[in-house]
Amino acid sequence: MSAPPCPVSPPPPPLPPLTPFLPSPPPRTTVSYVASINTIGNGLVIDLHAEMPAISPKGGFGGMSGPAVKYTALANVKKMRELLDESIDIIGVGGVETGADAFEMILCGAKAVQVSNPTS
User: What is the pLDDT of residue 40?
Assistant: First the structure.
């Protein structure tokens, strides 16, 4: 005798986009969690040997991520925890590479943490 199939839950609703600069008070919404932050816009890396931007799309402009955004991410997680209803979970994202980084996010109010996946 086989077990009955497990019911499939619908996917969660998409998250509203959040910038690293929070309005005060935050907008009212019906989400159960938010992710803070993603990338911070308009970073630029110059290749000194080629004397031009290191990446070609968008004139070389791109989102900054990794260790460069960790402190902005921590501040935003902490501020979101202060502003959002306790029923809304926060996923801490940005600059998390070690267990200590993840613990800092949790101390700032994150319920879960996304770990960086460096490509180099």
Answer: 86
d(CA 27, CA 5): 39
Packed helices 99-108 and 70-83: angle between N→C axes, nearest 10 degrees:
30
**Residue 19 DSSP one-character state:** -
CB 20 within 8 A of CB 41: no
- Give the pLDDT band (50/70/90) at residue 91: very high
| Model pTM score | 0.67
| Cα of 103 vs its chain's centroid, Å | 15
Nearest to 90 by CA among 48, 35, 41: 35
Q: Work out the number of other CB atoms within 10 angstroms of the CB of residue 93.
A: 24
Spatial contact of 89 and 113, defined as CB atoms under 8 Å apart? no
Cis before 91? omega within 30: no
AA identity, residue 40: I
